[in-house]
Amino acid sequence: MLAERLFRLRLSNVLVSMNYDALTFLTHPKLESVAGVWHGFFTRQGGVSEGIYASLNVGFGSEDEPDKVAENRRRASERIAADHLITVHQVHGKRVLRVNEPWPTDAAPQADAMVTDCSGLALGILTADCAPVLLCDSKNKIIGAAHAGWRGAVGGVLRATIEAMIDIGADRRSILAAVGPTIGPNSYEVGEAFPQPFLDQDSQNRLFFTPSSRQGHFYFDLPSYIGKYLALEGLACTVQLGYDTCADEDNFFSYRRGTLRGEKDYGRLLSAIMIEA
């Protein structure tokens, strides 16, 4: 069970779980050590949605009942103690927005990352296999949040996020990055053409692809690929939580798992970071 696993990881000083009532989120000690900054990778537990969306589905883009999604967001925002929970209309690109004030949820601009130096604004990323990446300048109190699926990752969304943080005063040597729950290398089978954009970027990226038992298919290690390119940015530290969203149905939504089952839709997880007031 998640609680048992998290307890063991907490003893090894790798991962910390915070559990209030039924709503559960994951944190990492590296980011937790930064005073005045809150972060969390929420699981699917603790919401009001039902069926394939059970229970903390925060995605208005799903076919879930909007009132239930709104209540799930309210619960998450309350746990964060945020003045506002800010999300964007994610499109698998690399556009980064600087957030100085909230915008209406039903008018969220298209982007895949946000940065801010304002307190009380929780930057939220929605995922269901893609990697949520939360970033924090531990000295200058500047934060970022990025949605890094394979398209965004190879397209440069993480570099764009780091550069946007630097533009408003961050120092890359003080930036900590945490890669949250994402589809794992044993779950992410891809076709023959899939590796080419990664090989065009760097032939050494072949190391992130392992042949599967099916002819012309591979398993792709998205978290390690993201880790490589974050390491190249010269940050203070990059950490991985190491959870496979596709393999852990009890705790995470997964687009890939739903697709393999022929399900009509899927829930969205929330990951967020905020400068505390």
Write the layout of secondary structure elements.
Elements: H1 2-11, E1 16-20, E2 23-27, H2 29-32, E3 37-42, H3 66-80, E4 84-86, E5 96-98, E6 113-116, E7 121-127, E8 131-137, E9 142-148, H4 150-155, H5 157-167, E10 175-179, E11 189-190, H6 196-201, E12 209-211, E13 218-220, H7 222-231, E14 237-240, H8 255-261, E15 269-275
Parallel strand pairs: 4-7, 5-6, 10-14
Antiparallel strand pairs: 1-2, 2-3, 3-15, 6-9, 7-15, 8-9, 8-10, 11-13, 12-13
Key structural traits:
CNF1/YfiH-like putative cysteine hydrolases; disordered N terminus; alpha+beta; 25% helix; 15 strands; six-stranded mixed beta sheet
What do you see in this structure?
With 277 residues, the protein is of the alpha+beta class. It has a single domain (2-184, 221-275), classed as CNF1/YfiH-like putative cysteine hydrolases, CATH 3.60.140.10. 25% of the residues lie in helices and 26% in strands. The protein contains 8 helices and 15 strands. A hairpin with a 6-residue loop joins strand 12 (209-211) and strand 13. It is globular, with a radius of gyration of 18 Å.
